[in-house]
Amino acid sequence: MSNYNKYVHEAEDEPIETIIRVAEPIDAKAILGLLRHVGKDTPYLSVGPEGANMTVDQQVELITRYNESDNNIMLVAESDDQIVGMATVAVIDNNRQSHVAEVGVSIIKEYWGYGIGSILTEEMIQFANYAEIKMLTLEVVTKNIRAIKLYEKYGFEIVGTLSKRLRNNFHYYDTYVMERLID
């Protein structure tokens, strides 16, 4: 997989340039800021407005582990000179499940509707093919119709439902388990 891909696309007649690239340790602080931002944008993520529960040094270590791995990847989406989204492919750390990876996508709300989620999903699938991963899996809140449609567009199928899987304040959300077989 290339280390850098540039896309120019439009949403509602407004062109936007997006660079998709592999995360680097220098991105750690920006990624933590992104996670705080998206945690405020939607109740449908496992992180809230507090963001990820880690320090910049811990995020640097996580990015480094991803970059040293042949079958894990952390991607960032840059637009307007800032990181506006990210995606991860993380293989389950178990020899008998090393062909299965969990995926996730997060994008700042102001950048929804520009196709960045589609680009990141395509890049994750391309990486999975490259890394010889056979199954991608994820959880998505059942009320997150926008994300469900995105994943279905790329061949993910709902294979189950988990009850009260996510809590935001006093609200509980069920999640769908979705999978995509990689040919």
Walkthrough of the structure:
This protein has 183 residues and is an alpha+beta fold. The protein has helices at 28-41, 56-68, 116-130, 145-153, and strands spanning 4-11, 14-22, 73-79, 82-91, 100-107, 135-141, 157-168, 171-181. The longest helix has 15 residues, at 116-130.
Strand content is 35-45%
- Oligomeric state of the chains in view: single chain
Shape: globular
Q: What's the average pLDDT?
A: 89
Intertermini distance: 17 Å
User: What gyration radius follows from the Cα positions, in whole Å?
Assistant: 16 Å
Largest sheet: 8 strands, mixed
Q: Count of DSSP E strands?
A: 8
Order of helices and strands: EEHHEEEHEHEE
Outline the low-pLDDT stretches.
none
Strand order of the biggest β-sheet = 1-2-3-4-5-6-8-7
- Helix % is 25-40%
- How many helices does DSSP assign? 4
Index terms:
alpha+beta; 4 helices; 183 residues; single chain
Topology readout:
Elements (H helix, E strand, L loop, with lengths): L3 E8 L2 E9 L5 H14 L14 H13 L4 E7 L2 E10 L8 E8 L8 H15 L4 E7 L3 H9 L3 E12 L2 E11 L2
Parallel strand pairs: 5-6
Antiparallel strand pairs: 1-2, 2-3, 3-4, 4-5, 6-8, 7-8
Helix pairs in contact: 1-2
